[in-house]
Amino acid sequence: MTDAKPPQPLASRLPRVVDWDSNQRRVVILDQTRLPNEVVFLHCDSVADVWQAIKRLSVRGAPAIGVAAAYGVCLATREEPSVGRCYEAIDRLATSRPTAVNLFWALQRMRDAVDRATAAGEPLLASLIEEARSIHHQDRELCAAIGRYGADRLLDLPPAADTAGLTLLTHCNAGALATAGNGTALSPIYELAGRGVAVRVFADETRPLLQGSRLTAWELQQMNIPVTVLTDSMAGSLIRSGKIDAVIVGADRISAAGDAANKIGTYPLAVLARYHQIPFFVAAPHSTFDLSLANGDDIPIEHRDSDELSQGFTESTVPGGCSVYNPAFDVTPAELITAIITDLGVIDNPDAEKVLNSIGTR
Ligand code: MRU
Question: How far is the centre of ligand 1, averaged over its atoms, from the C-alpha of 258 (Å)?
């Protein structure tokens, strides 16, 4: 853990996803529900505001949720500077979303910070802000490390199908908008671009909430990376056409066996990649691993409101009264994953032993 000056590889072309406003003592969150049409910030003055921002996906993406929640705990001391109120805030924020383990990882760090400050008789707010900032800065470093390892791994691929460079397919948004740094799945892409390698991205639209078309396409445009959007159902024929060199996605939670939960629609991409014999990469920091879960079947999958699917385009697209299946995530078994790219290195052909060796001591 370090508070050292973080690496700043991302141009200021992208707004900060989450930050602590030390003058107003509040959390500032980029409202991603308004992208790509408007860049609007939410000012959160209470734990309830942060809870709401996470729940409604104003801030989303596993690492960014963790950072937002960490700052959210600081707001508890504004309401009442007591240990009890901090614990309450931690418990409340833990109910905002169930799948991304980074949320619980960050909240555990904040709980430890509360306990340390209390034992040492230090002021709560200052200690909590310091810990939240440390989580925030660390995430930037983790993203940068994933970028370096991922870029090296992608350069090892056999010569690209598109001779002009690499063409990658991604799903949802696992970029800067989902983290405090350059992202996970998109970080190797920025790293490659920085090294002068031509990279082109196809971004799945990502039904039902369109994180791919609204967020990934917008983010990549700001960063001058060529991007093409397709609906999720078009991925099969695109891969079959031979235009995609590899699929790269993020993760919300990875089990001890290396099974990875990510945005719904990820698993079919892994099946497609295997069938068409192209690599399928998962990029995630060590904070996304949950070694307490033996395999992916135990990962809690969030089910979201049916309106997100049936009213997603303002007018109803489903007949009234019809039931809706709306899981937000699916699990890709380790056997379909070519490699997991982490901040600690690359886990090729992941299994329980390799995950334990790589992540187990963290
Ligand atoms: O529902 P979301 O938008 O929070 O889902 C985000 C994803 O599935 C991302 O791929 C994942 O959190 C990794 S973010 C680096």
Answer: 17
Q: Are 279 and 339 in contact (CB under 8 A)?
A: yes
Å from CA of 144 to ligand 1 middle:
18
Beta strand pairing status for 260-263 and 253-255?
antiparallel
Query: Which domains occur in the chain, in start order?
Result: 2-140 (1.20.120.420), 149-359 (3.40.50.10470)
In sequence order, which residues have a C-beta less than 8 Å from that of residue 72 and are 6 or more positions away? 27, 44, 47, 50, 51, 54, 89, 93
- Protein residue whose Cα sits closest to atom 6 of ligand 1: 61
Question: For 13-41, what is each residue's pLDDT tens digit?
Answer: 899 999 999 999 999 999 999 999 999 99
pTM attached to this predicted model: 0.95
As for ligand 1, residues whose beta carbon falls within 6 Å of it are 57, 60-63, 100, 172, 174, 178-179, 183-184, 211, 250-252, 262-263, 328
Mean pLDDT over residues 222-232, rounded?
97
Residue 312 pLDDT > 90: no
Average pLDDT over residues 293-297: 97
Q: Which of 103, 173, 186 to mutate to test the pocket of ligand 1 (most atoms within 8 A of CB)?
A: 173
